[in-house]
Amino acid sequence: MAKDKRDTQNTPNREQLINMAIRSAKQGQRKAARMMLQKVLAEDKRNERAMIMMAKLASGDKDRRKWYNRALQVNPDSEAALDGIAKMDYEDAASRNRALYRIILGASVAAVIVLSVAWVLIAAIGAANI
After folding, report:
1. For the domain that residue 105 is a member of, what is the CATH number?
2. What is the pLDDT of residues 60-110, one digit of tens each?
């Protein structure tokens, strides 16, 4: 059975679907945007632009990294995917550095308190011996 010509005229092509997904995402309709992008990827498993958008809409870092890596399999020179992964790596390192800073700061404060208490005790012992 042949498709009705009106059906194909009303059906958005992949590029239109991606643009609709971008507009939906900007309006906060992330689920609808992901559904549109999944439709694009079902028809074109190598659509780099759809993969990059899926990465941007991912709910977690693991999923985001998966989509960027898929885009790199299609195009190893993908600036968007390389930039996305670099940004994620930078944020991970910054988070680890902040945690380390808090640990060091906490240990420093604890050391100052211990030394202050020791100083007071030494002074008190010295005053008692006089």
Report:
1. 1.25.40.10
2. 999 999 999 999 999 999 999 999 999 999 888 877 777 766 788 777 877
In this structure, what token pair is assigned to residue 81? 């995917």
pLDDT digits (tens, 9 = 90+) for 14-37: 999 999 999 999 999 999 999 999
Q: Which amino acid is present at 5?
A: K
- Tokens 């050391």 identify what position? 111
Residue with the two structure tokens 């640990």: 103
Tokens of 59: 């709910």
> What contacts 24+ positions apart, CB below 8 Å, involve 92-101?
92/61
Rounded Cα distance, 121 and 128, in Å: 10
Residues 68/55, Cβ–Cβ less than 8 Å:
yes
φ, ψ of residue 79 to 5 degrees: the values are -60, -40
- Number of domains composing the chain: 1
* Structural domain boundaries enclosing 48: 5-128
